[in-house]
Amino acid sequence: MSTNTEPTGGNGAGAFDLTQFYQVFFEEAGENLAAMEQHLLGLDVDAPQDETLHAIFRCAHSIKGGAATFGFEDLAALTHTMETLLDRLRRHEMTPSAPMVDTLLALLQTPSPSGRTDAVMQLIGQILTKLGVPFTLTRRGALIAEMPGRSQTTDRAIVVHADTIGCMVRELKDNGRLALVPVGTFSARFATGARVRILPDDTDRFFTGTVMPLKASGHAFGDEIDTQPTSWDDVEVRVDRNVDSRADLEQLGLNVGDFVALVASPELTEDGFVVSRHLDGKAGVAVALTLAKVIAERNIVLPHRTTLMVTITEEVGHGASHGLPPDVAELVSVDNAVCAPGQQSLEHGVTIPMADMHGPFDYYLTRKLCRLAQEKGILHARDIFRYYRSDVAAAIEAGAATRAALVGFGLDGSHGWERTHLDSLEATYLLLYSWLRTPLTFEMWDAQPFGDLEDFPAEQPAASEQWVPLSRGEFADPGAASQGQAWPPADGAGETS
């Protein structure tokens, strides 16, 4: 910013002399600054009241208008910046980062491999209960909450998943260790070395351990530790108890089919990175719960009633296949966006995928999300995921008659040691919040599951194919059509010897 503190308005011939009003401006600006200070001192930073934000905004707006009138450019620029930030705050377009991070850390430290998700769903339920957000659970334990809207039907859904990759015990080995089978799709390479929690049928107990290669010590096996295969048959869990046999394991109460959860070990770095296992899924849950918090605490009534659905089996392919309200017209799933060579996803922004291995997402809804991101100045990218499916696939394959799209927070090293950035979580939050404040993509058409052809909002006219002349020597047209031969041929006409 420049250091100019003098007014730029001139007093040349014909110019109106404003200097006589300087004192009035200074007095009014002082009053507005004093009022702004009073409001700021009384502001609840964690849950600012709308009226207080409006009052601060009005003070900044008044100062900006006066400064611009009298030519105090630096002051006008400063108060304009303040006004912009305050406007985003009062419109609830600023991300409440601290609650989102706190929620994420709590989720990450609660084990929830697919098939053993009760503990994390209890945590999510407690958060929603504290917010006063009503919810129900399906028979299997997926959670369905509702955010209020003006529509009579539940027109929208945000779908996230709380389950993670993990393992199950395949065998109690004679050496006192555990053989594993993966739950969800990931490589044994990314399990090797992980600290784990072994979860027996007795839900009041757990055991700790480490996933080890069969040949773990270079002092014992030399170069063989680098040449041994990497597969689930080549790793085992070393249990942190005095066990040397299958009988010892049985004595502890361990069984085939016990769940093994990889310890998340989350870290928040100085640069704003979150590094952890299991960001896939749980970062999306944290974003969705932050949306629910803002909407509940601000008493926001959305244009459309919206389901917040937390699924529990996404990692094994059928998360959103049950429990979705039948009248949902638009569904957006929130999941990780793959940051890797050859991909376009952003670690500091939100990614709007065009397709995954299930197929293209809804044309109109994805483009609407792209336009919203552009209009709101949200850093975003488009991408295509070739080895990836989400809750969208499960919902559509189960028969959900809804437009469906995916938005993703950037994730490096998915299903391994994962990393995202707070900027990406914030961008994802802002895009979802903006989308929830809009009408349906085609408001009249999308309000009903079926309609007539003349009402269908087709906006994809296909370019008609036209005959392109082929060059035939000196001729630009194909000439007269060949008469060919009549069929069947006359007697003997088509015979060959």
What does the model show?
By secondary structure, this protein is of the alpha+beta class. The chain has three domains: 22-90, HPT domain (Four Helix Bundle (Hemerythrin (Met), subunit A), Up-down Bundle), CATH 1.20.120; 97-163 and 278-446, Zn peptidases (Aminopeptidase, 3-Layer(aba) Sandwich); 166-262, Beta Barrel (Elongation Factor Tu (Ef-tu), domain 3). The model is unreliable at 1-5 (pLDDT under 50). The longest helix has 21 residues, at 50-70. The protein has helices spanning 22-41, 50-70, 73-90, 97-108, 118-131, 188-191, 218-221, 224-227, 246-252, 279-297, 363-376, 391-397, 422-436, 443-446; strands at residues 135-137, 143-147, 154-161, 166-172, 178-183, 195-199, 207-213, 235-239, 259-262, 267-268, 273-276, 305-311, 330-339, 350-356, 359-360, 380-384, 403-412, 418-421. The protein has 14 helices and 18 strands.
